[in-house]
Structures are given as structure tokens and as C-alpha cells.
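Justification of resources, computational component.

The compute hours requested in this renewal are based largely on the per-chain cost of generating structure records like the one below. Each record pairs the submitted sequence with a full C-alpha cell output. That output is archived, and it is also reused by downstream analysis tasks.
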Amino acid sequence: MVAASGNTPIHLLATLLLRRGAGLVGFADLAEIPAHIRQGLPRAVSIAVPLNPHVIAGIRHGPTREYLAEYHRANALLGELAQAAVDALCRGGFRVAYGTATVAGVEFGQYDTPLPHKTVATRAGLGWIGRCALLVTERYGSAVRLMTVLTDAPLDTAAPVNDSRCGECVACVQACPGQAITGGLWRAGLPREAMVDADACYRTTRQFAPAIGAEPSIGICGACIAACPWTQRYIRAASGGMRDET
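The structure output for this chain reads:
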């Protein structure tokens, strides 16, 4: 096995990241994605940081100041974890590339990124895309924030997830305050527009900014995250199995 640093074998990279606060770590084979989109690097490390379940339990009816703070905390931790992965891989002589966690401060009509973190996460076997166009994981539901590190390291990649596990569930559709979720059932390659009206989401989330003390360009909501049954299971587990009544 190739070494990623003097005393951290590459197969222990996931362990390193989990010990530093990641909730899930997966390795993805990106061979099916055009080379220019993945910067010519064939594999990726997908990192998920879970959001505080008690904070998520409080946003069923709209975002809170606590949720905004948790959003920023998770993004900061993702930056630290990505840097830790980059440092370990670079010490092993591997090429790397990474950006930042996706943020809500975008311009109207400009929502696309060349290689979404959630796409890489499905390739790394971490979960599937829900009707709300967010990643859904078995352990945390959709209460996660994501980061990607591209590399040419010989990672032991996972089997990709290509189909939804949402079944007939439409909880996120019903919970969306902007009626932005159109309800399409995801499969690999399905465009976001078949699931979510991004403009409607943008308009709705910006309305919450003043009440939670967010920058005008920052729009977050979270209603679909909190409503997801997989998220609800995460909240109940964190509460000792007590039923969530929010």
C-alpha cells in the first residue's frame, strides 16, 4: 500500500479524517466524468460533516440563527478536513485539487458548479440524491455538509450509488415553503431541474435572511432537510430514541 505520509498509510486516510470530525468519508472513481471537469484527476475523497441534530430539529418551520451558526461551523470544519487530506496526500507525492464547501451566496440564475460535491458523494457510495436534490445518507439523512478533494492517489474506491432510495416518500416536497421541489425521483444523470426549481428556492430562501441575521446574499432554509424521514431517524437516535414532535 502506498504511503500518504511518513506514518499514515493511504488506507488510513479515512480514519484520520473521521478522528478529526468527519461523519462519513468515501473514495470515488471519477473515470466516467469528463477529465476537464475533474481537473484531470481520476479519483476523489468525499467528506461529509453532520449537522447538529438538535439544531436541525428546530428548523421544521424555518431556519434559525442557531442553524446559520451551525451551517458556518460545518463549512469551517470541512475546510480544515480538506486541508488535512491535502497535506497527507501531498506528502505522499500525489496530485490534489480542492475548492470550498458549497455556499448559499450565489446570484439569481447562477447555481451550477462544474462538479457538485453531492455528485462525488454518490460516486463514493455515501448516499443518494433525494427529491430535494440534496444528498441523503443512511446515517444522517440529508443533515450533512460536503467537501471534495480530487487526487490521483490509488484510493480503494467504493461502488457508486446510482438510484434513489426515497421510494414513494414526498416529505420534502410537502415541507418546502417555496414549493420549489417538483418531486422527480433521482437516478444517476437526472438533471437537477427534474427535481427542483432552483429559482423558486433562491427567492424563498432569501426571504429568511433578515430574521436570522444572515448576509443578504446568504439564503438558507433547511425545511426539506428536517422533514426527511432519514434525517428524522438521525434526530431520534441522537435524542435517545424519543419521538420528534417538532
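Residues 1-8, 104-111, 242-246 have pLDDT under 50 and may be disordered. The CA atoms of residues 147 and 185 lie 24 Å apart.
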